[in-house]
């Protein structure tokens, strides 16, 4: 049956500098490019042939997808970019250094902001500097849809329509799908696919660049989950 491969983008410049990133469109670091290549090599070694690719509208995920697909000679497959796969929006935390924020607000508060299921970060207003409402790539969205900050719950709520309308039907049709996206949009999707509880999802982490491969039965129950080595 069909395979789904999730790839968190390779290390970004702000992963490297330890800054909250969210919807800020930062690039891959050199290490991130190497991780994306290694992901593509692992996919090639395992002989996975894709039918469709999905990614976000943020360059760290788009580039990871392209670099990985180039390595396994599948750059030609149909590809869809959507804001629904963006990283969770980190609100007013975006751009701040995570360590300095923990020193200011306490490690416990920062852990809650980063990993709780339903606590929102401090929100950005539509008129604030850096608000996505000013970004042309979201111009076709209903302004009420553009977040000022998201928790994992809200992130999952905007990922689910993409899953239900586009990805699940392709998998049910036996097509192999690759999704290159972000730590938290992929944690949200994994929660849904694996039916992980609100409490347990706090402990799920996605490594940069590492392909996570799901095999499904014909009702989209998970038969197998495997992480490919990229070291
Ligand atoms: O800053 C972010 O956007 C994310 C991913 O890098 O961080 P965290 O893992 O802390 O949720």
How would you explain this protein's 3D organization?
By secondary structure, the protein is an alpha/beta fold. The protein is built from 7 helices and 6 strands. The chain has helices at 13-16, 30-45, 59-71, 98-105, 107-115, 152-172, 183-194; strands at residues 3-8, 52-55, 79-81, 177-181, 211-216, 222-227. Strands 3-2-4-1-5-6 form a 6-stranded mixed sheet, sandwiched between helices. The two termini are 28 Å apart. The mean pLDDT is 97. 2-phosphoglyceric acid binds at residues 15, 20-22, 87, 90, 114, 183-184.
Which properties best describe this structure?
single chain; six-stranded mixed β-sheet; His_Pase_superF_clade-1; Rossmann fold; alpha/beta; glycolysis; isomerase; binds 2-phosphoglyceric acid; EC 5.4.2.11; 36% helix; phosphoglycerate mutase activity; 231 residues
